[in-house]
Amino acid sequence: MAAVQMHALRLFKEFGYHETTVEQIAEAAEISPSTFFRYFATKEDVVTTDNYDPLLISAFEDQPTDLNPLQALRNAMKSAMDQMSDDEFTTMNERNQLIMTVPALRAASLNNLAQTMELLAKIISERMGNKQDNLAIRTLAGAVMGVNMSVMLYYAEHPEADFVKLLDESLTLLEQGLLL
Questions:
Q1: 55 and 17, same structural domain?
Q2: Which of 49, 64, 67, 172 is the most buried (most CB within 10 A)?
Q3: Helices 22-29 and 2-15, interaxial angle, to 10°?
Q4: For this UniProt entry, which segments traverse the membrane (predicted)?
Q5: Is 180 inside any structural domain?
């Protein structure tokens, strides 16, 4: 799956997202188009799909219980990104750039963001001993995903910035009540 994504990103950079076909990606990855669709349901999914949720869950579960949920999430997100190799981080940045600059990918990523929001609500509710549909927990998960999206947009416009630092600073602002 990672190899297919790597070839896809290379082709998207070289020829453009819309100009690159699934058949070209499959050929570059030395697989058939039908194999491509076993990994990814759509061409958009080759960009929007990632394997970071298990890292986030594990890092969140490792956080000290005396931290509030937002502090634990902030630490977990930073920890999960710190665990990425340089190549994984580069791929994440390339995917982010595409998602934030190609309208079809930005729209497709909303589903991924909503799924991640549900995941955050689940792990926060388990930590807090509340139901996942608790409005405060969903609001916190939504706020964290909103911060993540704002950082992704900012980073797409300022690729020279430090993504991890931006995310940490933005979550800290949220934790402090986002005083403007």
A1: no
A2: 49
A3: 120
A4: 135-156
A5: no
How far apart are the C-alpha atoms of 25 and 36, rounded to whole Å?
8
Q: Give the model's confidence band at 180: pLDDT under 50 very low, under 70 low, under 90 confident, else very high.
A: low
Q: Is the pLDDT of residue 18 over 80?
A: yes
Q: Which domain holds residue 67?
A: 50-175
For residue 36, the model assigns a pLDDT of 94
Which of 170, 148, 175 has the alpha carbon at shortest distance from 67? Answer: 175
DSSP codes of every residue in 133-149: T-HHHHHHHHHHHHHHH
Instruction: Give the other-Cβ count within 10 Å of 107's Cβ.
Output: 12
Q: Over the range 144-177, which residues count as b (16 or more CB within 10 Å of their CB) and which as e?
A: bbebbbebbeebbeeeeeebbebbbebbeebeee
Handedness of CA 34, 112, 154, 88 (dihedral sign): negative
